[in-house]
Inverse folding.
């Protein structure tokens, strides 16, 4: 039997979905992108690194506000999508680089701002990735991470992690606000602000983006149907399988 690493699995999962993520409304818009734009507008001379850039939505927001952007991702197909989309949008300050979050091919103190959106829940070793972020950030530089957030409560957490893993076998974990604060602190990065929000996930498009196999999609629906009333209320679970998840936007800085 052929064995694959976690990073191989991520690349396989996302390489065929690049165009779907480019057109995904959840990824192409949102209050978090508006907040990101407002923050980056304060740093017009910044060099920005977007880790796990996916189809490039955060990179494109950044490129309109800052000096230069490196769109960084494991998937070659995603990076090709970003390159062509940047050209189509007339964004000449976007460069693409391939690699993993846990080993950044950039020099110490070489980046002004690191951003990452909807990527960290795929990272195999978040602690190592955060230490790498600290290494490449210049002193006083900042990082802004946006992702789906675990509610923290054990019952709600296991429900969220289960449907995420069934939908996407490259999923590792959605972290709670407290877990994020601890991990950043352990990496030597200081928290400046935390914003919690919620996002509605339409079931059909959520499944379609990952091309989730039918048997796993069926398992998700069965699991949703067996959810307790507390879970149904918290995630605002709808009859069609759509639900609402917590999100986090956490800004930290390197002393």
């Amino acid at each position: 039997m052929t064995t694959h690493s976690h990073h191989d699995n991520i690349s396989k999962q996302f390489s065929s979905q690049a165009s779907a993520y480019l057109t995904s409304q959840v990824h192409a818009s949102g209050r978090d992108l508006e907040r990101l734009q407002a923050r980056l507008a304060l740093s017009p001379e910044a060099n920005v690194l977007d880790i796990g850039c996916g189809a490039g939505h955060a990179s494109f927001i950044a490129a309109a506000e800052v000096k230069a952007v490196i769109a960084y991702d494991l998937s070659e197909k995603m990076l090709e999508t970003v390159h062509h989309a940047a050209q189509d949008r007339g964004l000449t300050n976007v460069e693409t680089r391939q690699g993993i979050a846990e080993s950044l091919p950039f020099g110490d103190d070489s980046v002004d701002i690191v951003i990452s959106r909807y990527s960290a829940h795929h990272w195999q070793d978040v602690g190592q990735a955060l230490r790498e972020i600290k290494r490449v950030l210049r002193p006083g530089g900042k990082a802004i991470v946006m992702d789906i957030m675990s509610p923290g409560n054990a019952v709600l957490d296991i429900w969220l992690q289960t449907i995420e893993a069934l939908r996407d076998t490259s999923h590792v974990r959605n972290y709670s606000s407290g877990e994020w604060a601890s991990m950043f602190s352990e990496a030597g990065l200081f928290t400046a602000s935390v914003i919690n929000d919620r996002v509605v996930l339409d079931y059909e498009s959520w499944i379609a983006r990952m091309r989730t196999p039918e048997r796993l999609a069926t398992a998700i629906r069965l699991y949703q149907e067996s959810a307790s009333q507390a879970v149904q209320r918290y995630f605002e679970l709808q009859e069609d399988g759509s639900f609402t998840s917590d999100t986090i936007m956490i800004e930290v800085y390197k002393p």
